[in-house]
Amino acid sequence: MPVKNATAVIGLAIAAAFGASLACAGPAGAEEVVVKIENFTFNPPEVTVKAGTTIKWENDDDIPHSVVEEATKFRSKPLDTGESFEMSFKDAGTVTYFCGLHPHMKGKITVTP
Ligand SMILES: [Cu+2]
User: Fold this and answer.
1) pLDDT at 8 over 90
2) Dist. CA 44 → ligand 1 center (Å)
3) From the CA of 67, how far away is ligand 1's center (Å)?
4) What is the pLDDT of residue 12?
5) What region, left, alpha or beta, does residue 59 occupy, with left being phi > 0 and alpha being psi -120 to 50 degrees?
6) What is the pTM of this model?
7) How many angstroms does the Cα of residue 113 sit away from the middle of ligand 1?
8) What distance in angstroms lies between residue 102's CA and the mean position of ligand 1's atoms?
9) How many angstroms separate the CA atoms of 52 and 90, rounded?
10) Which DSSP helix (H) or strand (E) runs through 2?
11) Is the sign of the CA dihedral 15, 16, 17, 22 positive or negative?
12) What's the CA-to-centroid distance between 66 and ligand 1, angstroms?
């Protein structure tokens, strides 16, 4: 009987360790980087992130702005003050974008593997 109990305890310990390692795997591969939109600029204008990162653009200006990829692979709706737009980047490469309302506002994302 005591042997059976010990086995059960070990089994629980393994299950707990396995669960813990699974929990760690999620956040490590799902980082979020914030790009602020303020004073008619994307800040920072250029960011370098790892593949799988989510970029969140937040409009801190008191007029609307949007986020449009140069080849319109993605485009946000006009973001009012305090609104945000998120996009995940799974593939390595360079992404350039601008504000659809003020095309002189430009930004660049470099995604590394
Ligand atoms: Cu704008």
Assistant:
1) no
2) 15
3) 8
4) 41
5) beta
6) 0.74
7) 30
8) 4
9) 4
10) helix 2-28
11) positive
12) 6
Taking only the tens place, the pLDDT of each residue in 21-49 is 443 334 455 799 999 999 999 999 999 99
Distance (angstroms) between ligand 1 centre and the Cα of 101 equals 5
What's the 62 CA to ligand 1 centre distance in angstroms? Answer: 11
Please state which CATH number belongs to domain 32-112. Answer: 2.60.40.420
Distance 18 CA to ligand 1 centre (A): 47
Q: How far apart are CA 98 and CA 94, in angstroms?
A: 14
Q: In this structure, what token pair is assigned to residue 18?
A: 């396995």
User: Do 53 and 88 form a contact (C-beta atoms < 8 A)?
Assistant: yes
Supply the pLDDT for residue 29: 54
8 Å CB contact between 58 and 81 = no
> How far, in Å, is the centroid of ligand 1 from the Cα of 20?
43
- Residue spans per domain, the chain: 1-29, 32-112
User: Given a cut of 60, is residue 69 above it in pLDDT?
Assistant: yes
pLDDT score recorded for residue 28: 52
CA of 39 relative to ligand 1 center, distance in Å = 9
User: Over pLDDT 90: what percentage of the chain?
Assistant: 73
